[in-house]
Automatic annotation (TrEMBL):
InterPro entries: Alkaline_phosphatase_core_sf, Phosphodiest/P_Trfase, Renin_rcpt. It comes from Tieghemostelium lacteum. This is Uncharacterized protein. It holds the Pfam family Phosphodiest. Residues 1-16 form the signal peptide. One of its GO terms (molecular function) is signaling receptor activity. Keywords: Membrane, Signal, Transmembrane, Transmembrane helix. The keyword Flavoprotein does not apply. GO terms for cellular component: external side of plasma membrane. SUPFAM superfamilies: Alkaline phosphatase-like. It comes from the Eukaryota. The keyword Transmembrane applies.
Amino acid sequence: MKSIVVLVLLLITVLAVKSEIKAVINRSGDIIIQTPKDSSSKLFLKGNVYNGNSLTSIQDVEVSNLISHVMGLLPLNNQQKDRSSFPNVSIFNKPKLSLQFNLASISEESIKDDLTFLQNGISIEKTFYPMDSISELATIATGVTPDVHGIVASEWFANGQQKVQAYGKKSQSQSANVADLLSQSFGGKSLILSSSYCKKFTAAMALHQSLSSKNSYGFYSNKGITIENLSQQSSHLSEMILTPGQVETIIYSKAFKEFVLPSDTWSLSLNSGIIQITEDNGKTFYFNLDSDTDRALLTELVMVFHTVQTLQKSEHFHKLALDAVPDMLTFSFTGHKQIGVSHQNPEIQRLALTMINNAMKSTYESLSTVYGGKVACSVVALAPAASHKEYIDRIEQALDNGVSVPLSESFPHVYLPQSQKESQQEICQKVQNAIQELKVHCIESHTYSKVLVNADANTTSSSSYNSQEALEASADTNQVAAFQIFLFFPILWVLFILGGALLMMKISSDAQKDTLLYRNSNRQY
């Protein structure tokens, strides 16, 4: 009997070791290198609904739960129902707007020195390994880990050979995000907008295309020039989307200068595609709209500015902001990441962050006015990806030709061609010998997530978000509606009783008027 117990315990131990690293079939690598721990991303909260917040850390899968909580929605994707650590929000003071900013590759030094809008950061604890900025943002948006939503990185190899970009036609997230939940909860009437120069950042926070509505928008830049929209059903699109010429016109406007510059003592001028910004100390910097990195930063700033202006001035969008249905706007900044490197000047990186800081501040203040102060603002500052070039170089030297080494310095997956699958254990050992100070995981077929076995096999649909998930989203919508009715039922019941009491107490000054009270008194006149 004891021997059986020992064998069972050993089996449990072995299984626990083998499942230590989760993987997604056709997406994760055959070998995963466990690199040193990366720095943590940060969450910042602003708005009256967060005044009682005492959080110092939060798991990445709980960020969307926090946002859905303050917006009065049920937990997303079977998240924890216990919200006792979250701020208490009165049902009479629910936010009318969920405003979120996402910043790619932000160090703690930059937060302290350049992003003064951000105060009292909350550490975001990662619950899955490995993740790059795209997979981390997808996890934050959906509340589930990459082995469930399927976005293992910005790009990966399918079947070890074909490179696949995240959020393509056959590489969508398999899980609903908080924007899907909000839109479905209110019958598609919510204004949902996600905007970034990078399509992947936009898609991570936008509605799934199969759920898009006339009030949903997902803006990104196509080939660095035109701005495109992910949604297929957007109405009044001409008021929101911008042409390249309109982008340049806005940059030259006085209102845009006030929106992004910290003081009127700074100046901005545009001449033949060259933008000159002069600080109050006399330092001058130049941006070129023909440069991809410069255009990325400026386009993202312009898209935020234009959205705010549209909500303030457009009759259609101003009505959407003033109705009783809550909205969600998300702006993701990625253009600042490489600008310091491309200009070979770290000072211009600081300037870029200063402009982003003022754009966030201006947006929050302007939209607080539009939405009557009922804005729940969250900022996710994604930590810079750690560089592991030294380890990758050593892996390349140890492996034979034909093996796909990590796609980037921050994505430690090794992909094997089909012809070398049978030699996986031997190759794993070679990798481990090359980098003995790190742990190497040899991913066997039974350790893969079963959720996404056919994730890349469906070629007939433009979105991997299938009808079954849409039905589940509808079920969640019904639950949310029932929950909201339940919240207001006691209020309606009290009003009904008070109304009845007032009716009973209505005694006519004229005794000949046959009121309900007189009829019940049995008095004769």
